[in-house]
Amino acid sequence: MKLFKIIPALTSLMISVLISTAVNAQTKAGQTLNGQQQAIVRISALTGKGELEKLKPALNAGLDQGLTIKEISEIIVHVYAYAGFPRSIRGLQTFMTVLDERKAKGIHDVPGREASAIKDGRSKYDRGKAILDTLLDAPQGSTQSVYAAFAPIIEVFLKEHLFSDIFERDVINYMQRELATISALAGIGGVEPMLQSHLKICLNMGLSDGQLQHFTEVIKKELGKNEATEVQQVLSEVLKSKN
Asked: What is the mean pLDDT of the chain?
């Protein structure tokens, strides 16, 4: 009789342990960036800063984490919108070297797919504005920012090129693009207002507070304490205003 009483109790205990383990694992997963996300951070930050020797192992790690050749190329191209063509082109050249080295070792990486054709008939400006509304999680008002009022053409370039030509390409998704963006900005430094805006967008795209804290840790490891401190200060303000 005692045995019959013990077995259900043990079964109940085992189920509780399994549920607790699963919940803890899920919670932890929601508080840290996964392997591919960390690879995006490293590749973008090092490309933005121009640390090409450190970029090579980051690129290898990204491929090993399952990012395709097209996805990594897209990430590096995306960085040009923030760090400029020279940094992006040097990043692509470094990536080509890494791929040649891997091919020589018999490693065959997945090419990945091209961006889908754009079938939206609206103007690029309207498509870019719609994408920005999605990123900001709110429609934009008619009031222009100070810099756009001073130089209106930059507002056109932002809508038509950055948020249409670039963000519209679906090789990587909006969350991945925003991770690449904040990483490149961290590598550049001295762009706190932009970093603040894009950290807020990261939250809109579904990244958690914990994942953004983990992002800061990755930046510290890859770029250094000074860059991480700057990011942490901006992130703290963003999270404070959120609560």
From this structure: 89
